[in-house]
Amino acid sequence: MIRVLIADDQALLRGSFRLLVDLTPDFTTVAEAGTGAEAVALTGQHRPDVVLMDVRMPEMDGIEATRRICADPATAGTRVIILTTFDLDEYVYGALRAGASGFLLKDTPPADLLAGIRVVAAGEGLLAPTVTRRLIDEFARRPEPARPLPRRLDGVTEREREVLALIARGLSNSELAAHLSLSLATVKTHVGRLLTKLAVRDRAQLVIVAYETGLVGPGGSGSTDLG
User: Domain limits at 189?
Assistant: First the structure.
């Protein structure tokens, strides 16, 4: 059973999301929050698997609420999906840095929303294509990082760096396996080692590391040749 907390200041939207979640056999809504502060408190109380988090809420915005949830050891196992609209895309980078595991647009079809919750609950990252483009644009405005690569990647092998670069391009495990001519099990092993070595929660955080260290850059630039 995937336990979901819904945080949005609009009661109508909360009700719509709750109905969708509760009508799905292996999903259940454990709580609703109308403010960021309520989201933090209720997450601590109910320990949901996934929080659907709006960005603009009273008292505390969704990014700060996400930061507090992810930083608290008691709730660090909870995954946060940011619910965004096109005019809120400027929050993408900050929310990822705060620990969000993914993003979904509020007009996402119901089946895709449920699939996204499953993906994040399983420990994967989730970035809608439009959100991914916005993230890349954010890094495009930043100065090129200094070379050589930061010491954070010192313990990462060349093959793992190659996998990390491809993850930052948005490739799934099956696509990684095909691109690198590896078995799916081997790819999963590489991804697991990257998560451990870089001390991050999921693939969304791996994307941040890849860009921040300069392993990859906007438009395909970076230190790894992807062929």
Answer: 151-220
CA distance 78 to 73: 10
Average of pLDDT values for 53-82? 91
Total number of domains constituting the chain = 2
Sheet holding 2-7, edge to edge: 27-33, 2-7, 50-54, 79-84, 102-105
Separation CA 65–CA 43 (nearest Å): 10
52: β partners: 6, 81
Does 143 score more than 60 pLDDT?
no
Residues 205, 175, single domain; the answer is: yes
153 vs 161: CA distance, rounded Å: 8
CATH number for the domain spanning 132: value is: 3.40.50.2300
Q: pLDDT confidence of 20, banded at 50, 70, 90? A: very high
The pTM of the full predicted model, rounded to 2 decimals, is 0.74
Residue-wise burial string across 154-172, b where 16 or more C-beta atoms lie within 10 A, e elsewhere:
eebeeebbbbbbbbbbebe
CA distance 168 to 61: 27
In a domain, 227, yes or no: no
